[in-house]
Amino acid sequence: MKKFFFLFVFALTAISVSAQREFYELRVYTMKFGSPASGLHNYLEKALLPSLNRQGVKNIGAFEEWSQDNPAKIYLLIPYESMAAYEKVTKAVNSDKVFTENSAEYNTITQDKVPFSRYETSFFNAFSGIPQLIKPETGSMVFEMRTYEGYIEDAYQRKIKMFNEGELQIFKETGLHSVMFGEKIAGPQMPCLTYMLAFKDLAERDANWKKFSDHPEWKRISKLPEYANTVSNIHRVFLKPLKYSQL
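Structure for NIPSNAP family containing protein, as requested:
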């Protein structure tokens, strides 16, 4: 009987661990026109990312937009095991002596040469359907990030359900290579969700989105009444990895 109880508890624990949903931080730096960006890049590459890695945070994405519009933007995607882990890691980074040393040059940038005007932070809980970030294949150079706004919380929740119970599987079958799917819990544009896909190039991206739109299961579920009017607006940006990106 004791053996059975132990195995039962072990099984429940394994299920709990496998289902643990990650917690994502997405930073968007709005760069200042005319100011050198090198100060920020050096800080991220040589100070912040290595310090996060030392605290066990892996697969950090660092991107810039494919477009050459101004102001330029730098994106940083940081996956944490949980919200509690985010708090723990943040405290550890702030007390990391190596991080402090490697940040010295960044912290002495004068106001007239600061590389960005502001940065915006958003936080997400991973979808239950994709509870952990999926590292893309080597050579992925096109990252598509989409944000779907819902006109009200119920619409937003129905769209999440649509992904978890149908769309994610179709994405997998049609080569829309998922990186992360997140329910935004803090940041602009709420209520909304954000997800990221990875492709080797735009040709693969275009071909596989067509496969998705032609997929019979997508055509079926997109017409279900329960999923009507779930998305009121879509924001899309194409990103390319910076040299120090870990994705």
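The chain has two domains: 21-125, 127-242.
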